[in-house]
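Board notes, transcribed. Complex of a protein with adenosine-3'-5'-diphosphate.
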Amino acid sequence: NQPIGFPHRFHFPKTSRKLPQCLIIGVRKCGTRALLEMLNLHPRIQKAAGEVHFFDRDENYNKGLEWYRKKMPHSFRGQITIEKSPSYFVTPEVPERVRAMNSSIKLLLIVREPVTRAISDYTQLRSHAATSILPSLTTSIQQQASQTTSSISRTFEELSILPNGTVNMFYRPLVLSMYHQFILRWLEIFPREQLLLVNGDQLIEDPLSQIRRIEDFLGIERRISQHNFYFNETKGFYCLRTEMGDSKCLRETKGRRHPDVDPKLAIKYTYAYHTLVKQGRIVQPECH
Ligand code: A3P
């Protein structure tokens, strides 16, 4: 919506591209996009447009910090640049690489009830798999397509519960919901005060409650208000309203309908998880 005559990539003088002072490190499917878009309503925040994957992909990391900086948006002095790439959370090399860039960086980690997160992950993987087989359906590789179809048509329960009735703790969507084991790596590298845990379930129900905590954590004035959010009945989620009165909801890939899953699965998962902890196969962090 650039005014006529405005160069497409216009930026104000006295702005520059800065390395991020805050990262949303994950967790995938916990509301990372919603969180970034909501924070971007704040006049002191500038967001990187896409997921840059600088710290988790060697081919990007090897290009160096100057490459990363150029991926950042222009910002005024005093503004905070935020980037989000949810795979940072689970990639072992990332915490040390982030510290090497900026040891006082602020980290946001959004989490959600673990089984709901796993179902969201499953729903996304299934929808990607469904799209990726479409081209092959138009070719003669019908057999391959039908195999893929059968794997994606397996229910969440079929993938999560082994034939002997126990939980499949190697099923990736469930593994990624074991937040503790990944958080530990970050807490070995960063002091606890630099990491804020954001409640992703609350972000859906009452976004302002979480945004206020983050404004305080980042040390910026509380500028985002209830006026910036309105509940959209059709989408079933809060959508965003800017100061100028423009409104926007997140894309349809955010807020997908989940399949019905037997609620007993959540209990089974929690039990299996605690058993692993008791057996010392997952270490609990000492801080809260
Ligand atoms: P579902 O699509 O499974 O409901 P991420 O951006 O990390 O991939 O997270 C996607 C999730 O963000 C969605 O998962 C949705 O539940 C959640 N979310 C939180 N607030 C939202 C909002 N205001 N609009 C849409 N999705 C939102």
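The pocket of adenosine-3'-5'-diphosphate is lined by residues 28-34, 86, 120, 123, 203-204, 237-238, 250, 254-256 (CB under 6 Å). Residues 1-7, 133-149 have pLDDT under 50 and may be disordered.
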